[in-house]
Design a protein that fits this description.
The protein has about 425 residues and is mainly alpha-helical. It folds into two domains: about 100 residues, D-Maltodextrin-Binding Protein, domain 2; about 260 residues, no CATH class. It is built from 17 helices and six strands. The strands form two sheets. The chain has a four-stranded mixed beta sheet, with helices on one face. A two-stranded antiparallel ribbon has the order 5-6. Pfam families: ABC2_membrane_3. It is found in: Cell membrane.
């Protein structure tokens, strides 16, 4: 009789009916949405407050140079000394005070402008002030040299280098960024999935071993079927939880947006605020993003993501199960966990530091064929264009290694689940493989 479906069903139902599993399924997306909502709320509060900056311009060059924005109000001061201006700004609790002295030449002015504030000012605000001053100073310098600044602007040309592969495929810097985001997100997602649900498999094996339930089960089931049942059952539970997270995050997000009136999308980085303030063609960028996304090999990315995700997870899950069978408690797992995690950590570092720089280099190609690193590295390479034969070979090597690891893990599992009170070593594990 084939007991594998029964073991898989038992493992799956035990996981999804577990109280901690149910609590975390609902609590995790709630906390995530709550954090984003809090950040959006605090960001709105921060953006609603108008910061006042006083300006004492003794040079009279920058009278109309500073324009108010939604969050900054510039207040000019006249007929007042530097000491009085500083005192007024401090007592009025203004955000800052900009002092522009009168100098003989523009060149002298460059190093004598001072900004006073209670604490270190915002880099964004200082950047805006710096840009406004430099624009005016450069205009004055050009006029002193008898050059019309408007003529300079008319003669200035922005160079936009077109990117195209030898095969005639058009690319762009934005497209490269999107490929990087997809590859990085896919690799990181697999990394987190392995750690979270690999540990779940390991704890499940340890719990059954310590409760002696395994002694009853093993009498009628082959160790390899028991091992595969645990791996596949926990994998399905993990996928169920992950899908539930995606659905609940969407539901909670809609509730927060509609009921509380807080939109997490209102959170903006300083770069986004500067783009909107300068009218930097946000709609044009959005259209370019859509065009680049549609130009990606979506079908190939999805298929390979599924294959490498499943293969990579199953490979590491078998090792986690073997470790669980070899020890009596979670405290004894530390000596075995580092060798398992090292290839995974190495894959992440190679992906983010080597693949990004040269996705088709020797190091990137080698690590995309090593089964313990290929799930992460190859997923990060594929968006940049990897020959189909390399993808297929890497997948075959990955699943072949998984089958070998299952055999290896089953040998340890068969002996380890019946071993109690003895802390295993690597030498002991080698002996178990010979039984």
């Amino acid at each position: 009789m084939n007991h594998l479906p029964l073991i898989l069903k038992r493992e799956y139902l035990n996981k999804i009916r577990n109280k901690s599993f149910i609590i975390m399924t609902f609590l995790s997306p709630l906390l995530l949405v709550g954090i984003f909502t809090l950040v959006a709320y605090l960001s709105n509060i921060n953006n609603d407050s108008v910061r006042t900056i006083t300006i004492l311009d003794e040079s009279r060059l920058f009278v109309d140079q500073f324009e108010d924005t939604g969050s900054i109000h510039y207040k000019p001061l006249n007929d007042i000394t530097l000491a009085e201006a500083k005192k007024l700004s401090e007592e009025s609790e203004y955000y800052g005070f900009l002092y522009i002295p009168k100098t003989q030449t523009i060149d002298e002015l460059a190093n004598k402008i001072t900004f006073y504030s209670e604490d270190s000012p915002s880099l964004t605000i200082m950047g805006d002030i710096q840009d406004a001053i430099e624009e005016k100073v450069n205009t004055e310098k050009l006029q002193e040299a008898g050059i019309d600044p408007k003529k300079i602007d008319q003669l200035r040309i922005n160079i936009n280098t077109n990117l195209e592969t030898y095969a005639g495929e058009e690319t762009s810097k934005l497209g490269s960024g999107l490929k990087l985001i997809f590859g990085g997100a896919a690799g990181y997602l697999l990394f987190m999935f392995i750690i979270i649900y690999g540990n779940m498999i390991m704890r499940s094996v340890i719990e059954e071993k310590t409760s002696r339930i395994i002694e009853v089960i093993i009498s009628s089931v082959k160790p390899i079927k028991l091992l595969l049942g645990k791996i596949f059952g926990t994998t399905l539970a993990g996928i169920t939880q992950f899908v539930a997270w995606l659905i609940l995050i969407g539901v909670f997000g809609l509730v927060v947006t509609s009921v509380l009136g807080i939109d997490p999308s209102t959170v903006q980085t300083p770069q986004q605020q500067m783009m909107e303030a300068n009218g930097s063609g946000v709609e044009q960028i959005a259209a370019e993003v859509i065009r680049e996304v549609t130009s990606l090999p979506i079908t190939n990315l999805i298929i390979m993501f599924i294959l490498f995700f499943i293969g990579g997870y199953l490979l590491y899950a078998s090792l986690y199960a073997a470790v669980g069978a070899a020890v009596d408690s979670e405290t004894d797992t530390q000596q075995f966990m580092m060798p398992i995690l090292l290839p995974l950590i190495l894959a992440v570092y190679v992906g983010f530091f080597t693949v990004i720089d040269n996705p088709h280099g020797t190091v990137s190609q080698v690590f995309s064929f090593i089964p313990f690193t290929s799930p992460v590295v190859m997923l990060m390479r594929i968006p940049f264009g990897v020959p189909i034969w390399q993808q297929i070979v890497s997948v075959i090597i990955l699943f072949a290694t998984f089958m070998g690891m299952v055999w290896f893990a089953a040998k340890i599992y068969r002996v380890g689940i019946l071993m109690y009170g003895k802390k295993p070593s690597y030498k002991e594990l080698v002996k178990w493989l010979k039984y």
